[in-house]
Design goal:
Elements: H1 3-11, H2 30-38, E1 45-47, E2 50-52, H3 54-60, H4 79-94, H5 115-125, E3 147-148, H6 153-163, E4 170-171, H7 176-188, E5 193-199, H8 202-217, E6 221-228, H9 238-254, E7 259-263, H10 268-276, E8 293-296, E9 320-324, H11 332-337, H12 350-358, E10 360-361, E11 373-374, H13 395-414, E12 424-425, E13 428-429, H14 440-445, E14 448-450, E15 456-458, E16 468-476, E17 482-491, E18 500-502, E19 530-534, E20 543-547, E21 552-553, E22 563-564, E23 569-571, E24 578-580, E25 582-584, H15 591-616, H16 621-624, H17 628-644, H18 654-688, H19 701-725, E26 729-733, E27 740-746, H20 750-774, H21 784-807, H22 811-842, H23 849-856
Parallel strand pairs: 3-4, 5-6, 5-7, 7-8, 8-9, 10-11, 25-27
Antiparallel strand pairs: 1-2, 9-16, 12-13, 14-15, 16-17, 17-18, 19-20, 21-22, 23-24, 26-27
Helix pairs in contact: 4-13, 5-6, 9-10, 15-17, 15-22, 17-18, 17-22, 18-19, 18-20, 19-20, 20-21, 21-22
Length: 857
């Protein structure tokens, strides 16, 4: 067989010869067509199994029963559809309880996948038998009730254009559910980069327009969209068709996608097999197909013309297809086994089917010598490969069977009193009451019954047949045998969680994938912790990976953008998880808190001990010097300063936040005021001893007490304004530290806080200056020198406190302030009182008045 012949045969529509329109002729047109092609002619049209040359087209419209060159190549697998119709009608007519006095008949009309012949056949339905006069019927026995549409939606559409005028019920499948089923299948296996191959007609365009938006909404994009050319009316040269097939083959072979979604008709597989077989005919650098996962629509089935029987089936090994749900009918296989050309003389299809199914020829065949073997008629259908003929009922045959029964049950409901008309008249059934096809609509909607297989057949509220799709896995074996395995189910009417089910373990994938789950992605998965970044000018499935920034995560793969963690959480190192932040504050249980408490208690006890020592030795000159009461006040203030640091430890509350800074500010102001009063007292005392000094009247306890009180009241006033206008309050700082929520006291008004610190600094600077000036005044117990050192330390601590405080966060900030309080108060205690304690406790003789008089003398 030449390449031209092989390709031409594939491009013909599937049909069965010996239809009601024309019979196959004995002439073989291939040599004529080959010669015509070589002379530069073009094939104008093909209708059914017949090919018409330009000179023959004109006579076609006037002569339906024409004789022309024909190529009776048959898709033998479609023969089961006819047998399913016959089987259903036979069962119904034998069941007198269903239709007791009505005999169902049927006519089979060939549409030839051609609009013109579809309209012609539809008008014949509306005419008297054997008289083509549309809208004129005088045959009372052939009463048209319903029409079962063709397998292709366009065929049903052409028929509905005519039949809709007469409201004749026509049963056609709804494709919407299988579109969603294909999307669900792709999403289940996470196949987001697919190629689309569809028939080149309105139905294919509708498929693309419907499915591609669904793909986009589901995150699926396509690498290419290619069309299978239709050749009902072929306006291309055969060479153009070959080039189309070669180009599609190259696209499939070189594409990165591993999944091909194919939407076609019953002969599309035959065409695709020819395209995949091109390297065996054309010498070019193409290699064998790399192996893909084919996703087939419900209209498609694995079929073969007789000349494709020996071709390798491995290219479609592992394919997944949707198929109308089917089940085995009781007695159907026995009915199929009973068919043979010898016992089925009234079957006008079986002879052509038999010859091309078994590759043999009857002695009186009209085809001429095409096969070497002779047909005996005793060949067994069970021995045929499944791509030639199936003994198990296919989804299309199952639909035809159920459609016939739907009509029968609707008729049964239409005539509830059929039992009254069982009487026979002159050996014939009594004519039932006259009915019109439009009357059947109401009863069709309410039909619900269990068929021979025990499954319920019914219509939904929209008048559509409740359809379930099976997911079929095509398995091709090296010995050229072939089988289909049911691996899943799509039920659009079931609950959402049960609408889609599939058994992955039952699927056999193409050998290229080594039985591992295939992947089909334009870009590798974007793992958690990354987000997708679109590539400019490429489909949205093609992207680069961007790591999530700090504070954002992606906890799923292929996320379009990273998600920001809420304020109570932070992202882990891999940016895949939001972890709850730890609530932190300077507590009494942690080591830092315990250490500060110990230091505070130690300083407090030390201060208390110094105060007790001074009170015990209150009559000594060293204690009485520089205002004894002022000394007691200073020590008490220092004791309270140490204890005030405890307000900064523990979880901040409303009361502690109000008292924390204000108590610290007022107490420290009192302490610094005492130091300032001591220093001023020393200066005034020295000045007052000069002859004629008027300062003498200012020297005394009243001045010191007034100074301490007034300085403390000023700080108290500042704190009162602070509390009245913007009081501190407990707050949660979620931003300063990544992994922590800091429980803190919000100062509310930083200005007031720094006013408190500024006032303390002012008092300290004044005290330092006065003490510095008075450090060399002649006095037996002059404290100015010690106060100078203490104020120098105090100012150093608080000057370093400000930048350190501002540069830390959380418990460290609190610890810095506590340290500053303890250090500054401890400095005052050590510099002013430790030398005196040394003299009182260790050198008591040095603290006596006689010692200082002796030194002076």
């Amino acid at each position: 067989m030449t390449l031209l012949e092989a390709m031409f045969l594939v491009l013909l529509p599937p049909t069965l010869c010996k239809t009601h329109i024309a019979e196959c002729t004995a002439s073989d047109p291939l040599p004529i067509l080959h010669k015509y092609y070589q002379e530069g002619g073009a094939i104008i049209g093909s209708i059914g199994s017949h090919i018409y040359l330009p000179s023959e087209i004109m006579s076609f419209k006037d002569q339906p029963n024409f004789t022309s060159y024909s190529i009776p190549f048959v898709l033998t697998k479609n023969y089961q559809h006819i047998l399913a119709l016959v089987f259903a009608v036979t069962e119904i007519n034998a069941n007198h309880q269903l239709l007791s006095n009505i005999t169902l008949g049927f006519n089979i009309y060939e549409s030839y996948y051609n609009a013109r012949w579809t309209y012609h056949a539809t008008m014949e339905l509306l005419s008297t038998k054997n008289r083509f006069i549309p809208n004129y019927r005088c045959d009372i026995q052939n009463n048209l009730i319903a029409v079962v549409g063709g397998l292709e939606p366009e065929t049903s559409f052409y028929m509905a254009t005519m039949l809709g005028i007469y409201n004749i019920p026509q049963m056609a499948p709804n494709e919407a559910h299988q579109y969603l089923g294909i999307v669900q299948l792709l999403l289940h296996f996470e196949w987001t980069w697919v190629g689309i191959i569809t028939v080149d007609d309105d139905n294919g365009e509708r498929f693309v327009r419907t499915l591609i938006p669904e793909f986009s909404l589901s995150g699926i994009c396509f690498a290419f969209v290619e069309k299978i050319p239709q050749v009902t009316y072929l306006e291309l040269h055969i060479a153009d068709v070959l080039m189309k097939g070669r180009r599609v083959y190259e696209i499939i072979r070189t594409s990165q996608t591993n999944v091909l979604v194919c939407f076609g008709d019953t002969e599309s597989i035959a065409k695709l097999r020819s395209w995949m077989y091109l390297p065996h005919y054309i010498e070019y650098t193409a290699t064998e197909p790399k192996g893909e996962v084919w996703i087939m629509s419900a209209q498609m089935d694995f079929t073969s013309y007789f000349f494709q029987r020996s071709w390798n089936r491995q290219v479609f090994h592992g394919a997944l297809s949707l198929a109308i749900h089917t089940n085995e009918l009781l007695g159907f296989q026995r009915f199929l086994q009973s068919r043979n050309p010898i016992r089925s003389k009234d079957d006008g299809f079986i002879w052509d089917f038999w010859e091309q199914a078994f590759l043999c020829q009857f002695s009186d065949s009209l085809l001429g010598k095409k096969f070497d073997d002779n047909c005996t008629g005793e060949e067994k259908l069970d021995n045929l490969p499944r791509d030639v003929f199936e003994m198990s009922m296919t989804g299309h045959s199952y639909s035809i069977y159920n459609a016939v029964y739907v009509v029968a049950h609707a008729l049964h409901a239409m005539y509830p009193s059929l039992d009254k008309h069982r009487r026979l008249s002159s050996g014939k059934r009594q004519k039932p009451p006259e009915q019109q096809p439009w009357q059947l609509h109401y009863f069709l909607r309410s039909v619900s019954f269990n068929n021979n297989a025990g499954e319920t057949v019914s219509f939904d509220p929209n008048g559509e047949l409740v359809t379930v799709f099976d997911i079929i896995n095509w398995v091709a074996f090296p010995n050229q045998s072939f089988r289909k395995v049911k691996v899943g189910r799509i039920d659009a009417k079931a609950a959402p969680c049960q609408a889609f089910s599939i058994n992955e373990d039952a699927i056999t994938w193409h050998s290229r994938f080594n039985q591992a789950l295939p992947t089909s992605l334009c870009s590798d998965y974007c793992p958690p912790g990354f987000s997708k970044r679109r590539r400019e000018g490429e489909p949205f499935c093609c992207y680069d990976r961007n790591p999530c920034p700090e504070g954002k995560i992606s906890n799923q793969k292929n996320m379009d953008d990273c998600v920001t963690c809420s304020l109570e959480f932070y992202s882990n190192a891999n940016q895949t998880l939001c972890i709850p932040k730890v609530i932190t504050f300077l507590s009494y249980e942690e080591p830092l808190g315990i250490s500060l408490v110990i230091v505070t208690v130690s300083f407090s006890l030390t201060t208390a001990f110094v105060l007790a020592t001074f009170m015990e030795h209150r009559d000594t000159p060293i204690v009485k010097a520089n205002n004894r009461n002022l000394t007691y006040t200073l020590l008490t203030s220092l004791l309270l300063c140490f204890l005030s640091s405890l307000l900064f430890i523990g979880r901040p509350g409303e009361v502690t936040c109000l008292l924390r800074q204000t108590v610290f500010g007022i107490i420290f102001s009192g302490a610094i005021s005492c130091v300032l009063a001591k220093t001023i007292t020393v200066v005034l005392a020295f000045v007052a001893t000069k002859p004629g000094s008027r300062i003498k009247k200012w020297v005394g306890k009243r001045l010191a007490h007034s100074l301490v009180l007034s300085c403390s009241l000023i700080q108290g006033g500042i704190c009162a304004v602070w509390l009245a206008t913007s009081p501190p309050f407990p707050d949660l700082d979620m931003n300063s530290k990544t992994e922590e929520i800091i429980v803190e006291c919000n100062e509310a008004s930083p200005t007031m806080f720094y006013c408190v610190l500024g006032y303390l600094g002012f008092l300290a600077m004044v005290s330092f200056k006065v003490a510095f000036l008075a450090r060399k005044l002649p006095d037996s117990f002059n404290e100015a020198k010690f106060i100078t050192f203490s104020m120098l330390m105090f100012c150093s601590v608080w000057l370093s406190f400000v930048p350190t405080y501002l540069s830390t966060k959380g418990k460290s900030m609190v610890a810095v302030e506590i340290f500053s309080i303890l250090a500054s108060a401890g400095g005052l205690l050590a510099c002013i009182f430790f030398p005196k304690c040394y003299m009182i406790l260790l050198m008591p003789e040095l603290s006596k008045r006689e010692h200082f008089i002796r030194r002076k003398t």
